[in-house]
Write a sequence for this structure.
């Protein structure tokens, strides 16, 4: 098995018929190059069995993993990794979409570049409008570098933009599970960059991230709780560079400062002048990223 698409499902049966239709379209183009794929559905709502129209499944295998209890998205993704057989992994949300040729495009790119992660471009659907996640190639290229994730933010709207070499997923990501949903993917990128992985770009638009209005990433307080847990996990990883961790922590807390309190904001800006400088330069020169 070459490719596994792992999707946590939480009360998501209403999405699955459309999901299976799209996976069947993707599988058609994968089968043309004789590449086998599977879909791993991880049911994180054990009170509701997974249900879909099996006639919509064409050209790929399906594995269903049932969590014994509601475990959250990080644990569900890890359970999917443990159950899958592919050399490469795509983490896809239940309500997000891939273009018909997306998996083939991502697979051929990672095979050619022999990299650990390939990040494609995509569409952010919000408020009835479609926006490119990266409006230019340079902005996307910056988002493939460790520097951006340390100094600026998490630049990947969702792991669905990426194809990941399974062997490159850090052990600590699989064993240090975040209980608060929201930043498990950011934790994955930070740990992978610390392991000096190679992330390359596929500039094709292959992915659609749907903002339903209830996405966790739009809830700042819940996201911050997940971020604090992420910082704790990084601190527990003795191999993670402590200087880098301090910088990440400073940047995260600096960006939480109440800007309506001008005196406080000026004080914190002086304390974090290096972070302020880098972020201002990014906004002036690198612009183009429309998410977060």
């Amino acid at each position: 098995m070459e490719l596994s698409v792992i999707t946590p499902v939480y009360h998501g049966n209403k999405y699955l018929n459309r999901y299976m239709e799209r996976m069947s379209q993707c599988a058609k183009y994968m089968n043309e190059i004789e590449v086998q794929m599977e879909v791993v559905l991880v049911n994180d709502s054990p009170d509701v069995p997974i249900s879909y129209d099996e006639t919509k499944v064409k050209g790929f295998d399906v594995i269903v993993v049932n969590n014994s209890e509601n475990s959250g998205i990080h644990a569900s993704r890890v359970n999917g990794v443990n159950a899958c057989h592919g050399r490469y992994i795509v983490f896809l949300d239940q309500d997000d979409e891939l273009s018909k040729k997306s998996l083939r495009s991502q697979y051929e790119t990672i095979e050619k570049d022999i990299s650990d992660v390939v990040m494609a471009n995509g569409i952010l659907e919000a408020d009835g409008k479609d926006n490119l996640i990266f409006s230019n190639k340079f902005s996307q290229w910056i988002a493939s570098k460790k520097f951006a994730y340390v100094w600026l933010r998490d630049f990947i709207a969702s792991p669905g933009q990426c194809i990941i070499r399974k062997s490159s997923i850090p052990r600590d990501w699989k064993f240090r599970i975040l209980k608060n949903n929201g930043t498990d993917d950011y934790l994955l990128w930070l740990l992978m960059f610390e392991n000096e992985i190679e992330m390359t770009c596929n500039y094709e638009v292959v992915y659609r991230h749907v903002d339903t209005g209830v996405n966790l990433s739009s809830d700042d307080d819940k996201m911050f709780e997940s971020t604090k847990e992420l910082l704790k996990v990084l601190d527990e990883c003795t191999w993670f560079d402590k200087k880098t961790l301090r910088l990440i922590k400073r940047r995260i807390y600096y960006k939480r400062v109440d800007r309506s309190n001008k005196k406080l904001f000026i004080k914190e800006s002086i304390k974090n002048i290096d972070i302020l400088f880098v972020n201002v330069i990014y906004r002036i020169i690198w612009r183009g990223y429309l998410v977060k």
